[in-house]
Amino acid sequence: MGTAYITQEDAFIGKTDERLVIKADKKKLLDIPFLKVDGVVVLGRATLSPAVVREILERHIPLSFLTVTGKYLGRLEPEVTKNIFVRKAQWQAMGESPKAIHLVQGFVRGKLKKLS
Description:
alpha/beta, CATH 3.100.10.20, 3 helices
């Protein structure tokens, strides 16, 4: 399915077994397996059950919140499982430090070599 967009005002987003369930006014609007969900975007007000928040985080599914008009409010992002040492080295190499310049020169050399 990809990304589930919840546009119904005052919707309830919950979990039943292995499925994401969206209800409004006591009616089921959407019922999809979590396996088919790559992301969830909530436009406007909605209530999320603690069970669905936990399931989304455990499955590494990003959850974004927007206003009714589409203005970005925030995002609930699952834990990043990347190597912390790699991430630290990337942050230390940014900017105009000698290490950063050396890395950029290597990237450019690699690109030029690939083109020739």
